[in-house]
Amino acid sequence: MHKQPPNLLVDVNGVGYELEAPMSTVYDLPQEGEPVSLYVHMVVREDAQLLFGFSEFRQREMFRILLKVNGVGPKVGLAILSTLGTGEFLQCVQNRDLAMLTRVPGIGKKTAERMILEMRDRLEVSDIDGSFDPPADDGGNAYRDAVSALLALGYNAREAEAAVEAVRATSESRDELIRNALKHLSR
Q1: 8 Å CB contact between 160 and 127
Q2: Distance between CA atoms of 36 and 30, rounded to whole angstroms?
Q3: Which of 58-62, 114-118, 141-145, 172-176 has the lowest mean pLDDT?
Q4: Residue 97 to residue 118: CA distance in whole angstroms
Q5: What backbone phi and psi angles, to 5 degrees, belong to 90?
Q6: How many angstroms separate the CA atoms of 88 and 13, rounded?
Q7: Distance in angstroms (rounded) separating the CA atoms of residues 179 and 171
Q8: pLDDT averaged over the chain?
Q9: Cβ atoms of residues 146 and 177 within 8 Å
Q10: What is the pLDDT of residue 52?
Q11: Which backbone phi and psi does 112 adopt, to 5 degrees?
Q12: DSSP 3-state of 108
């Protein structure tokens, strides 16, 4: 691994992958040459395939939610997570703190207003009050994968988490968890 913030070069079995990451992730990384594990989001464009790396699952999920906001692209999403972090950003949305949001490079007053309006619709109260993290018990990976799958299908975080939690006890595998959660949501 080679760091040149905000860019990272990660060696995966002899293949180098270039990623961009928020500064909090860059600070969390081990020394160069040490093994590293990142949550990755890929953006495919007509002219490029871009990778974005995050040290925490929560950061990657917030980044994905930010990308759905009109006028917010990957660069602005990274700027938000680098400047404010997930928790502080959620507080800005909850408190409608335009002044704090406009401190982020690339965000003016109109973008901040639109972002607060759209994010309040996307994030439920449970997300804003700090329970955005999925439970991390022994079934945490399957839980996170199922929630991520539902988020990718367009469900909001509250719906996805509630559906997965509702069928968690009766589902044995990740695939079964996703299938049962979708059935639960279709009722």
Answers
A1: no
A2: 7
A3: 141-145
A4: 14
A5: -60, -40
A6: 36
A7: 9
A8: 82
A9: yes
A10: 94
A11: -65, -45
A12: coil
Tell me how crowded residue 34 is: count the other CB atoms within 10 A of its CB. 8
Among 18, 121, 127, which Cα is nearest to 68's?
A: 121
pLDDT of res. 79: 92
Cα separation, 58 vs 120, in Å, equals: 17
96-119 pLDDT tens trace: 889 999 999 888 888 888 888 888
Q: What is the DSSP letter of 130?
A: I
* Helices vs strands, H then E, count in the chain: 10, 5
Give the pLDDT mean for 70-95: 88
pLDDT confidence of residue 51: 94
Cis geometry, peptide bond prior to residue 105 (ω within 30 degrees of 0): no
Measure the CA–CA gap between 120 and 158, rounded to whole angstroms. Answer: 12
Helix (H) or strand (E) holding 67: helix 57-67
* Residue 33 phi, psi dihedral angles, 5° rounding: 95, -15
Task: Say if residues 112 and 101 touch (Cβ distance below 8 Å).
Answer: yes
Left if phi > 0, otherwise alpha if psi is -120 to 50, otherwise beta: which for 35? beta
Q: How far apart are the first and last CA of the chain?
A: 47
pLDDT at 94 over 90: no
DSSP secondary structure code for residue 75 in this structure: H
pTM for the structure as a whole: 0.63
Q: Give 161's contacts (C-beta < 8 A, 6+ positions apart).
A: 126, 134, 147
